[in-house]
Structures are given as C-alpha cells and as structure tokens.
Amino acid sequence: QVQLVESGGGLVQAGGSLRLSCAASGRTFSNYAMGWFHQAPGKEREFVAAISSSGGFTYYADSVKGRFTISRDNAKNTGYLQMNSLKPEDTAVYYCAADPRGARTVADNRLNRALEVWGQGTLVTVSS
Known about the structure:
128 residues
C-alpha cells in the first residue's frame, strides 16, 4: 500500500504562489491516480484537482482552473500542486490522496470521500 506525506505549505500573500508536494512511499505509486483536496476552517473537505496514474489526464475544481496545476513524477514517487494567483479564500489544510480506481473516481464527489490513501495535510494560509 502507498503512504503519503504532504509538504510545501506555509504563509503567502494574496497573488503569490506555492508548490505543494506529496511524497509517496511504496512501490506501486505509479498504479494510483492521485488528487488534492482542501478543508477550510469550519467547512467540509473539497476536491481541488486530480491526475491519472500516468499523468495524462487531469481534472480541476472550477474555483482553481487557470490558477492551479497538478502534476506528478512517478520516477520520484511524488505528486505536486502548483498554486498561483493565490487568494485568501484558498486558505485551508491541503490533503493529497491516492486511489487505484482512476482520476475520475478521485474527482467524483460521490466517490472521493472513500479514497484508499490520504495524507495528513499541510496548511496553506493566504493573507490579504
């Protein structure tokens, strides 16, 4: 099984950028689609972006399209979320997740509460 550890969170001013990383341990990371989610204080966890196991397909929440980019490097067992033009409403704990059922499953809000593997999260704070 895959284990996930996020890093790269921090404090940034509105309009700035951050890149989150999701390091996977376990030899089967390349068989898993992965995704990013965020949870703001007092709110439910929400889907942000997903990427297929090969990296060929990506999906984004409407709120981040054009600002965030998901990618992965299977040789390094690592996934990334490049966040540009950050807004105060992007402030949240960001989680990565992985599942062998594919990126559509990761992106599907009817299914993604039960993804196979979750990281512990990294906090992103965007100041105005």
